[in-house]
Amino acid sequence: MKVAIAILAAGASQRFDGIKQLALFNDKALLQRAVELASAHTAQPWVTLGANAQAIVETLDLSTARILEVPGWQEGMAASLRGIAEQAQREALDGVLILLADQPLLRSEDIDALLTRARLNPKAAIATRQKDGGPGVPAYVPALCFDELLQLKGDVGAKVILCQLNSELLDFGERVRDVDTREQLAALAHVHGI
Q: Apex CA 83: angle with CA 106 and CA 66, to 5°?
């Protein structure tokens, strides 16, 4: 089974004061944490970059990652997902596991659980249960959904597709919480004693 792990990190994070991908959580940049987490499960995780790409590449060690530059990243998340789908189709992958750069509580066993479920049913979408009870990322998107990812426009993520497919949901609790502001990041660190 050929699966890529792709980390979405191309956005400008306008609600965050500064470059969110470089913000520290437990003394490590958010994007660096995500790359190291993914690298424990794949030889070369993909990282989408757009806003602040030069600063990110110059600051972090992304030597284990494959950078996918996202033209038109200003459009929103759909631009990154289209780029991932195009690359995945070119490489004839069975699916892609999509991660966010700003979910610092995710653990290696969470990635293991998603990949295990994907191997058992490689044509099914497998998502994580969000606070609202619906599907979200991290999520495994099978190859049969790549064409749908290519149709996404604007600041729309894979949630629409995951809902349509009645994705299998794994519950990782608050570990799927992402951060949009410095205050949220500080609160998360405080709650977890970091």
A: 60
CA dihedral of residues 21, 27, 28, 29 (deg, nearest 10): 10
What is the helix (H) or strand (E) element at residue 115, kind and residue range? helix 108-120
Coil, strand or helix at 72: coil
pLDDT band at 189 (very low <50, low <70, confident <90, very high): confident
Mention every residue, 6+ apart, whose C-beta is less than 8 A from residue 131.
177
Question: What value, to the nearest 5°, has the Cα angle with vertex 79 and ends 74 and 82?
Answer: 175
Q: CB neighbours (10 Å) of residue 87?
A: 18
Residue 4 CA to its chain's centroid (Å): 11
Can the peptide bond before residue 138 be classed as cis, meaning omega within 30 degrees of 0?
yes
Phi-psi category of 192—alpha, beta or left, where left has phi over 0 and alpha has psi -120 to 50?
Answer: alpha
The reply to whether the predicted model has a pTM over 0.90 is yes
> What is the tens place of the pLDDT at every residue in 31-85?
999 999 999 999 899 999 999 999 999 999 999 999 999 989 999 889 999 999 9
Cβ atoms within 10 Å of 76's Cβ, excluding its own: 17
